[in-house]
């Protein structure tokens, strides 16, 4: 849907983005080259950006060193992304069609301030783009048609990207009611509440209420045949009704929205519904995901966990892929890749072996469900695996970059504790620091400690394998450099050894078992 952004607005945004993330002033030449824009156009766009920043208290500073953008502390890059989307004619039209399903060509021309020919071109562009999302644009009258679930998912992504959390776009849906709903959204003990995006849930529920109010039923989607028994759904309806009553919702509200909320819960959290009538295939699918996660845990020395929430979430995503052929429609965003997805880049760069093997396992599980790579959103699957695997970053960091420091004070334990507090404040959280607690230090007394580096406030001559680093009493930034240098070498060595160990384990697993 990025094609709905005009070429000019897109170029201006790229300049803003470059300035936003720049750590120093950027020359005009750099801005032009980086964003593939002429120097003349770059200067023109900068003048326009300056004018736009005035409204939010931002400025563009120009000096001999180049251009630097200053913004109020509360303004983030998402502000510019939201403005870019909401200033787009295409997205303006999509929003108008959401709130009004009976607009004529004449009404759209007037509300968008475009000519008949411009509206015709815009309509053709939208039709082509919406096909990728499994949707159709009808023009008699103008409205979005298609599977109701995909329509609601599409607009959830739109409103989530186009509006800040502090701005409520639905005049006919009570924001207070939605806030009350999401703040109590703890229907299942098995659900991991801390992993939910509450604003996105709030928008999704609001869109569901709005669509239901206007006669667009969710109950006609393919997902109604998800495999849940009638008892499962009835039990969910009872749970939803009790939930709404506990929030003092009116009988009319429960009658209007109880059933659709039950369907939403079944769509997203059906795996958590306890029932003896679950089919055998469902259990098989869950077992295959569990086996893949256990395999990854074994290969990378990760703590064993039942991964209940993660297994169910991956299963739900794969189930959605099996129902719909449009992976674009099931994508997690429309225009801007979520900032959360930077987690993918971090893992891919820091733990490429784990990332690659995890991808292979997810693809293998999907193939077992007759899902090809063209039908799945591998990036979304990987994001959920990495973000919802409990303490995965910490465990991988410890396995690949662990560094244990043993601290010895030449004075006394209290002095050692003070130096330890200083080191804790200066060094990374992932480094473990243990205080040497014996009266005298020697090769023999060190044997009861497990460490990678010995740090001492006094000079030591010891015949040990681990490096010894002197820690001066005056601990300024310069004095930490020798220790940081040794820490980096230890980490690199540990990472190399961990990779060697994992590669050896993978080779052993892949060898055929002797007859």
Automatic annotation (TrEMBL):
InterPro entries: BglG_antiterminators, Mga_HTH
Domain Mga helix-turn-helix: 79-159
Annotated keywords: Transcription, Transcription regulation
Coiled coil region boundaries: none
Matching Pfam families: Mga (PF05043)
Keyword Transcription regulation attributed: yes
Domain of life where this protein originates: Bacteria
Keyword presence, Transcription regulation: yes
Protein name per its UniProtKB record: Helix-turn-helix domain-containing protein
Organism per entry: Marinilactibacillus psychrotolerans
């Amino acid at each position: 849907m990025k094609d709905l952004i005009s070429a000019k607005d897109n170029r201006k945004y790229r300049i803003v983005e470059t300035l936003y993330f720049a750590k120093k002033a950027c020359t005009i030449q750099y801005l032009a080259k980086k964003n593939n824009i002429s120097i003349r156009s770059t200067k023109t766009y900068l003048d326009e950006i300056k004018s736009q920043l005035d409204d939010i208290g931002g400025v563009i500073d120009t000096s001999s060193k180049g251009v630097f953008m200053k913004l109020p502390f509360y303004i983030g890059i998402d502000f510019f992304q939201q403005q870019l989307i909401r200033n787009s004619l295409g997205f303006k039209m999509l929003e108008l069609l959401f709130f009004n399903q009976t607009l004529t060509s004449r009404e759209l021309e007037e509300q968008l301030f475009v000519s008949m020919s411009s509206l015709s071109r815009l309509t053709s562009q939208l039709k082509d783009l919406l096909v990728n999302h499994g949707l159709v644009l009808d023009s008699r009258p103008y409205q979005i048609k298609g599977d109701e679930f995909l329509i609601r998912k599409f607009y959830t992504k739109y409103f989530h990207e186009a509006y800040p959390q502090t701005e409520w776009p639905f005049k006919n849906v009570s924001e207070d009611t939605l806030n009350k709903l999401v703040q109590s959204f703890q229907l299942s003990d098995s659900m991991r509440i801390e992993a939910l995006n509450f604003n996105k849930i709030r928008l999704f529920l609001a869109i569901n209420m709005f669509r239901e109010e206007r006669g667009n039923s969710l109950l006609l989607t393919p997902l109604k045949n998800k495999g849940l028994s009638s008892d499962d759904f009835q039990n969910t309806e009872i749970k939803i009704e009790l939930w709404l009553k506990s929030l003092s919702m009116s009988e009319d509200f429960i009658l209007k929205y109880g059933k659709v909320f039950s369907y939403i819960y079944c769509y997203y959290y059906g795996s958590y519904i306890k029932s003896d009538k679950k089919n055998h295939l469902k259990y098989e699918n869950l077992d295959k995901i569990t086996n893949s996660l256990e395999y990854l845990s074994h290969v990378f020395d990760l703590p064993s966990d039942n991964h209940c929430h993660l297994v169910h979430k991956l299963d739900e995503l794969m189930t959605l892929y099996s129902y719909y052929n449009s992976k674009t429609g099931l994508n997690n965003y429309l225009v801007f890749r979520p900032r959360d997805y930077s987690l993918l880049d971090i893992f891919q760069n820091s733990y490429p072996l784990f990332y690659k093997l995890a991808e292979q396992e997810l693809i293998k599980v999907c193939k077992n469900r007759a899902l090809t790579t063209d039908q799945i959103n591998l990036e979304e699957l990987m994001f959920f695996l990495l973000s919802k695997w409990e303490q995965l970053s910490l465990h991988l960091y410890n396995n690949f970059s662990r560094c244990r420091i043993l601290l010895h004070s030449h004075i006394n334990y209290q002095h050692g504790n003070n130096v330890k507090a200083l080191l804790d404040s200066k060094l990374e959280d992932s480094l473990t620091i243990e205080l040497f607690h014996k009266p005298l230090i020697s090769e023999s007394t060190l044997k009861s400690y497990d460490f990678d580096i010995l740090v001492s406030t006094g000079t030591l001559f010891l015949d040990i394998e681990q490096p010894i680093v002197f820690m001066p009493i005056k601990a300024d930034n310069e004095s930490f450099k020798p220790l940081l240098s040794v820490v980096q070498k230890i980490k690199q060595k540990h990472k190399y050894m961990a990779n060697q160990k994992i590669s050896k384990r993978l080779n052993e697993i892949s060898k055929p078992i002797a007859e």
